[in-house]
């Protein structure tokens, strides 16, 4: 039975789609590396499996340590407040508060930065309001209040991490947000392979499935890799058939992979 699935090409949205292309390029690099170094990857997979098992087993302990760090932060804040105010002030109390805050802050900076940011901002508000409202008794809290404010802001302001292959993904999508030169262009998949053509022209470009490296599907895209070239199709441009039907057909013809988004990957690890 003959089948054909056709895409009518429309402009892309590079800023929205480049993270998906970046993840696909990472997967492509992994597949090529697996073909070249199968034994090394077999060892890597075994080590990663042990690591995931250990991570799941220690998840409860991580929650317990995080809760303990929060308690230490709160207790350290109270001790610091007591050590800086009269008549309760004393060096041992002040030192204990500083140690509690330092230990809790160090752990949360690595394992719970958002939690640390919220706690530090709450502490900054408490210390600053107290120091400004009653400077005679609580004026010494102003400096640690400002320090807590800076720490809270620093913990919540995260620098965006560059995605692997982000530059390559942006380069591949550059200029594809414009309709210039794409009017009437279509792409079709059939039993014979992939065909690219333009409305009103008889000439077209054909690529059999045997010459494709693999196809990758992301949330919004279908990507075809052929050597160093990549063809980027948007699922919304599919105008004949459904994506599930096309996926089933193409999976029989060529290596077909679904590249999950970051949220789905995180849930799978957990």
Question: What would you note in describing this structure?
Answer:
By secondary structure, the protein is of the alpha+beta class. The chain folds into two domains: 4-54 and 184-269, Roll (PH-domain like); 59-156, no CATH class. The protein has ten helices and eight strands. The strands form two sheets. A four-stranded antiparallel beta sheet has the order 1-2-3-4, with no helix packed on it. A four-stranded mixed beta sheet has the order 7-6-5-8, with helices on both faces. The model is unreliable at 265-270 (pLDDT under 50).
The assigned structural class equals alpha+beta
Mean pLDDT across every amino acid position: 87
Q: How many separate domains?
A: 2
How many helix segments?
Answer: 10
Q: Summarize the main sheet.
A: 4 strands, antiparallel
N-to-C SSE string, H for helix and E for strand:
EHHHHHHHHEEEEEEHEH
- Shape verdict: elongated
Please give the radius of gyration in angstroms. Answer: 28 Å
* Share of helix, binned: 55-70%
Question: Gap between N and C termini, in Å?
Answer: 43 Å
Strand order of the largest sheet: 1-2-3-4
- Determine and state the CATH class of the largest domain: Mainly Beta
Instruction: Classify the fold: give the CATH topology of the largest domain.
Output: PH-domain like
How much of the sequence is in beta strands? 5-15%
Count the E strands. 8
| Poorly predicted spans | 265-270
In CATH, the architecture of the largest domain is: Roll
């Amino acid at each position: 039975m003959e089948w054909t699935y056709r895409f009518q090409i429309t402009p892309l949205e590079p800023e929205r789609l480049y993270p998906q292309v970046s993840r696909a390029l990472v997967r492509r690099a992994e597949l090529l590396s697996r073909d070249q170094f199968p034994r090394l990857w077999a060892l890597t997979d075994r080590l990663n499996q042990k690591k995931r098992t250990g991570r799941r087993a220690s998840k409860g302990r991580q929650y317990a340590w995080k809760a303990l760090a929060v308690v230490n932060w709160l207790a350290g804040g109270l001790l610091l407040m007591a050590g800086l105010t009269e008549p309760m002030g004393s060096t041992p109390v002040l030192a204990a508060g500083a140690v509690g805050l330092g230990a809790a802050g160090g752990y949360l900076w690595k394992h719970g930065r958002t939690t640390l940011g919220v706690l530090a901002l709450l502490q900054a508000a408490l210390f600053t309001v107290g120091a400004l409202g009653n400077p005679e008794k609580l004026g010494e809290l102003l400096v640690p209040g400002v320090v807590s404010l800076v720490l809270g802001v620093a913990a919540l302001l995260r620098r965006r991490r560059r995605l692997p292959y982000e530059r390559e993904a942006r380069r591949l999508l550059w200029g594809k947000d414009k309709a210039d030169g794409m009017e009437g262009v279509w792409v079709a998949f059939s039993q014979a392979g992939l065909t690219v053509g333009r409305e009103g022209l008889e000439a077209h470009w054909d690529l059999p499935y045997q010459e494709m490296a693999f196809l990758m599907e992301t949330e919004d895209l279908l990507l075809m890799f052929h050597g160093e070239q990549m063809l980027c199709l948007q699922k919304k441009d599919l105008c004949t058939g459904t994506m599930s039907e096309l996926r089933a057909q193409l999976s029989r013809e060529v290596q077909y992979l679904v590249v999950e988004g970051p949220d789905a990957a995180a849930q799978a690890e957990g």
